[in-house]
Amino acid sequence: MLMTLGAAIWDHQYRTRPKDYRGSWASPTSPYLPYSLDRSPPPCSMQPESGPQNFPIYAYHGHQQMGITYTNPSPESSITLATNADNQRVAPHWESNRMGPQTDGPSTPSSGDTHSGGHAFFSNAHNFNLDHFEYNVYNHSSKSKGWDKLVAATAPNALFDAKARFDPPKCDEDTRVEVTKEIMDWIQDREVPQSLLYMTGAAGSGKSALQQTISEQCAESEILAASFFFGAGDDTRNNTARLIPTIAYQLGQKNSTIRRLIGEAVDNDPLIFGRTLLKQMQALVLTPLSRLPSSASLKLPYAVLIDGLDECSDENGQIEVLRVIAHCLTKERTPLRFFIASRPEMVILQALKHGGHLHEAAYHIQLSDDYDATADIRRTVKRRLRELQERRCLPVVWFTNEDIEIIVDAASGQYIYAITAVRYVSEPRSSPVERLHAVLNWAAGNGDSSSARPFASLDKLYTNILVKAKEAYYAVDSTNQCDFLLVLNAYLQTDLLSPSDVDQPCELEENTFETITCDLRALVKNPDENDWDTRSLGVYHKSFKDFLESQDRAGPLYTLPRALEYIVSSILRWAGNLPAMRPRHPLRCGHYFDEDDVSIFYQLSSVCMTLSREHWKTSSDALINPIIECSSKDNGRGWSTIDSWLMEYLQLEPKRAEPDDTVNWLIETFERVLPLIMEKNPEAAAIVQDYYERWKLLQTPRSCSKCSGLL
């Protein structure tokens, strides 16, 4: 510690200063000394000039018999300032092995035996008076090494204002206003029973931008206790090893007492960073906080923000973090409030769902489902293109409102698409006009594989998520017979059916859908089989399906032709194996009939129709091969069964004046494939030709009665 003495007046010229200059205040009973190191000195009424030319500066070493010893840089002499037992000031005393006994001035002993001997402070000093003084204390000799060890264990790149994250994504000023307000209101309302706000959202929905914006607002409001931004590509923040030390470091920066307590905790257990996250949280965060006075706790920043927990590479690490947070909220008393954002990965949803260990403790915001960002995306795209126009001196009409709407529509409510498009157009070394044209072509599905790749970063995101999910799927059971990408595409391409409708013809086990999609919640929507509009597997972002359907973009993950052949062959094989008898409706003439089965058959046929129209260029073989297979088996028995079921379904709606969509699909498909089938298998082509001619008759208006139909 360094102690500066001031307000001392003397007229003695300090000509011969010894090399050793030590001394002490012997008693803490002086009215000008604090009774403990924690008490502050009284204010000084006199502030003379200080410094070596007016008064020496001494360094504090420690207590000695209730006194305070301080030292001058010279190692050979010492000085004592003291008071007697009656709190009266006594003369300073001098100690030195180089100077003889005092010869001038009285020697007044101190009330405490500070040093052996006791000589006058300044020989021949005159008019010396020490009525007031000022001192500053700095701790050097007892400095803890624990804090330095903690700093070394942190992840500087994970801070919200880290240099490594320069220019991070954040919300534009007039966007995301509603959700930002909801989050900030929750953080600042300390009466809310939940102390955890968990926000889940699809990949690219703007979670990190919201976290950055909230972090900055909390820092400005002086309520940000700590932040940690996980990042998959950074080894210092793609795991949980540095999470708790980084949080503890930021808390210590906010309060010196917490900092000292954290340092002591590390000194007491140097191996703390290798212990469980719960042990680290207790030692480095919870215990130091609990030792703060309640008044100090109320003034402490309390918002802890964690972004991208799903980017922690170890799933067990994600689980451990969630359990530590749950412990803090349910087993401990802490002033901290946590705001975590991530994709809705399986382990996270399990913790948040009903019955999960965070269900009662967390306030859950589902960003992609609860908030429509379309208007904000439109506003952002238009503003960024206008700003680019000003920077690059582009014509006012270099883009149109229709161009903006194309981008907004392609974004499907997800920010990442729009931001990626704008970033691509804004590349300084290229023409914005040409790049905007490329973006619009890609958005319309007219992208050329030889052209530039506006959405390369988006494709990389999709690739990483799919590869990770695929690895996790096979890691559970290496003997699994299902082709992950094949079955996933089957669910996505049959967008008129529920997963259970697909499972039956594809001969998939009942829980296949859950195991295939459990690690893809950031990309796909969970279907609701009780709601016709949402009963099929949907995607949050249209560009994800575009990615899967483009060989150039998906690369080795491209399986569309195989998936289409798998779907069509499964449907035809299943339909052909249905009972050959003509089914009857129970309400019509008292005959037996299962209407649900016919409805499913109709849906499956409609899906085949959709596939043939949307993917004809890529799916011609996918359609031809299953049709040949169906025609060749048992002399086309499958087509006979399909015909029987189809006719029965048409009779269920006698008021319809136009052919069913399924009939249209069959006719349209046969017209396309008949020439190709003829080249490959003339016998199969002849069977197909017969049914083609039969079903073409249905294209004319038909009249149906209660019990008759076209057979």
Features:
single chain, 711 residues, alpha/beta, Rossmann fold, 5 domains, five-stranded parallel beta sheet, four-stranded antiparallel beta sheet, 14 strands, 44% helix, 8% strand, elongated, disordered N terminus, disordered C terminus, Nephrocystin 3-like N-terminal domain-containing protein, repeat
Describe the secondary-structure layout:
Blueprint: E1 2-3, E2 22-25, E3 58-64, E4 67-71, E5 77-80, E6 93-96, E7 119-120, H1 146-152, H2 177-188, E8 196-200, H3 207-220, E9 224-229, H4 243-254, H5 256-268, H6 277-290, H7 294-299, E10 303-307, H8 315-330, E11 337-342, H9 346-352, E12 362-366, H10 367-370, H11 374-392, H12 401-411, H13 415-425, H14 432-443, H15 456-476, H16 484-493, H17 499-503, H18 512-517, E13 524-525, E14 538-539, H19 542-548, H20 551-554, H21 560-576, H22 595-614, H23 616-632, H24 637-651, H25 661-680, H26 682-696
Parallel strand pairs: 8-11, 8-12, 9-10, 10-11
Antiparallel strand pairs: 1-3, 2-4, 3-4, 5-6, 6-7, 13-14
Helix pairs in contact: 1-5, 4-5, 4-6, 5-6, 6-8, 11-12, 11-13, 12-13, 13-14, 16-21, 21-22, 21-23, 21-24, 22-23, 22-24, 22-25, 23-25, 23-26, 25-26
Protein name: Nephrocystin 3-like N-terminal domain-containing protein
Domain Nephrocystin 3-like N-terminal: 181-343
InterPro entries: NPHP3-like_N, P-loop_NTPase
